[in-house]
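Reviewer comment 2.1 asked that we show a complete input and output for one of the modelled complexes. We chose the zinc ion case, as it is the one discussed in the main text.
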Amino acid sequence: MRLARALIKAPGRHLFAVGDDWQSINRFAGADLSAMTSFEEWFGHGHILRLERTFRCPQSLCDVAGGFVQANPSQLKKRVASDTPSIGPAVRAVEVANEDQIKGALLRLWQQIHQDLAAGKLAPSRGNKVSIFLLGRYRRDDCYLPSWAQLSDRIDVRFQTVHGSKGLEADYVFLPRLVSGYYSFPSTIADDPVLLLALPAGDDFPFAEERRLFYVALTRARRGVTLVTIQHQHSPFLTELRRTRGLEVATIEGEASRTIPCPDPKCDGSLVPRKSRYGPFLGCTNYPRCEQKAKLKR
Ligand SMILES: [Zn+2]
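Response of the prediction step:
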């Protein structure tokens, strides 16, 4: 940016730049969001054009993803419009009981797609197939990929990290582990404090970079996104979508989620069964930071 600014100093020189501040996810590699969000401070007066049409995601998905990323007030405002027809729900959330059930749940969901294709209930996409991205927050999430033998010849499944998926697209996107806690999304692994000294300034909004990363994940899909989570370990991003968009979370059998979001609207935890000397009760996963409690319903 400093080089570009120096090059255009002389009269008669102009700068034309294209970027998307909503997809700025490479701060770890030195990407500086202020090139877009503070463009005029960097380069002086400029004419800003907004690209507000997408040819990929259906409108309902654009609305969920766009609303989510713009919860951070420092992102540039825009409304993305789409003419892509929607096929099935834009975003759905599936809850499994524990870690070990994720792989099996994904396989069942993909077998359902295969059956719907075979029965003519679902239209194939390019090459008479449908494409699926399994998008991991971490490279280790590729462990949820079933073996090729278990997959259909009409479904192309590819694993990518969300970072690696930028610029790519598939019919369906699956996030295998949208959870809080260990190896969570949003990631709570702090950047190396030494490395931080060399990185461009981040923004103050909590999990701002992870929020943009989640936006990138959602907007890879041409048809829809499935978020897989674990009971009582819902990611704060999932809790936010339940609160702000009324997103329903259900088990693969279609039963409503038993994970209860914390009643404190500022808390991103959920209420889980706990025991005290007075007997069992529901307490917030963010205890002792949050002391919300509820009676255990029998
Ligand atoms: Zn709480």
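Residues 102-118 form the longest helix (17 residues). We note this here for comparison with the apo prediction described in Section 3.2.
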